């Protein structure tokens, strides 16, 4: 026995009987079916996404499974690199096709590896811009953006837009930090007391002198400590 339950839509005013030729899914959808089937057709057989962590790898595998279940093309392949720089190199060398990069990494990818961005997140600002927010403890009334000398700081990563480039550029351009010839890592190391700047000790991101205090506040086991 089959029971049919009709739940009226609040905005509906009436019901109409469908013609016999529209009582199938293909007949009912009409030309819209071509649009639906169109996204399942792609001249590219596979697309390799480069990720840099175990959680990203797991998410990539789940996405690959979901896309395959819907017969969407191209088929996704997951490639795990050890860093964003490594993913840039993988794309440049043909081992991967795409990756998700921070705005700062997009600059590096274009400058050093001739990669191009083709898609961007857009938030509720209506443009490709986004805000950078600095936070401090509410009870710490002595901390303000104009004077952070000797403070402890944490950043999203070396050369990331929101966590490094924009705040450091703001402090340097206003003359609150000595630039040391555009050496932002040295400038930060001698201005702040202790920090966590993932990637600050990696020769992929820092080709100069390693400053240990840039990673003193980072947590993580062995090889993952202070890594981007």
TrEMBL record:
Domain Transferrin-like: start-end pairs: 47-228
Listed GO CC annotations: early endosome; extracellular space; plasma membrane; recycling endosome
Database matches in InterPro entries: Transferrin-like_dom (IPR001156)
Record protein name field: Transferrin-like domain-containing protein
PANTHER family in the cross-refs: TRANSFERRIN, TRANSFERRIN 2
A GO biological-process term: iron ion transport
SMART domains: TR_FER
């Amino acid at each position: 026995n089959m029971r049919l339950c009709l739940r009226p839509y609040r905005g509906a005013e009436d019901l109409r009987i469908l013609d016999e030729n529209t009582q199938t899914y293909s007949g009912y959808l009409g030309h819209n079916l071509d649009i639906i089937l169109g996204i399942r057709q792609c001249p590219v057989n596979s697309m390799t996404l480069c990720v840099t962590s175990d959680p990203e790898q797991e998410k990539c595998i789940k996405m690959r499974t979901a896309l395959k279940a819907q017969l969407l093309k191209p088929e996704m392949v997951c490639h795990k690199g050890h860093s964003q720089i490594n993913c840039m190199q993988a794309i440049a060398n043909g081992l991967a096709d795409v990756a998700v990069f921070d705005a700062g990494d997009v600059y590096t990818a274009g400058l050093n590896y001739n990669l191009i961005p083709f898609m961007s997140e857009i938030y509720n600002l209506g443009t490709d811009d986004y805000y950078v927010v600095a936070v401090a403890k509410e009870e710490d009334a002595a901390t303000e953006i104009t004077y952070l000398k000797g403070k402890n700081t944490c950043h999203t990563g070396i050369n990331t837009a929101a966590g490094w480039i924009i705040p450091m550029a703001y402090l340097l351009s206003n003359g609150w930090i000595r630039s040391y010839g555009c050496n932002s890592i040295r400038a930060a190391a001698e201005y702040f007391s202790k920090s966590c700047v993932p990637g600050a000790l990696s020769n992929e991101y820092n080709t100069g002198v390693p400053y240990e205090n840039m990673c003193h506040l980072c947590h993580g086991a062995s090889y993952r400590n202070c890594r981007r």
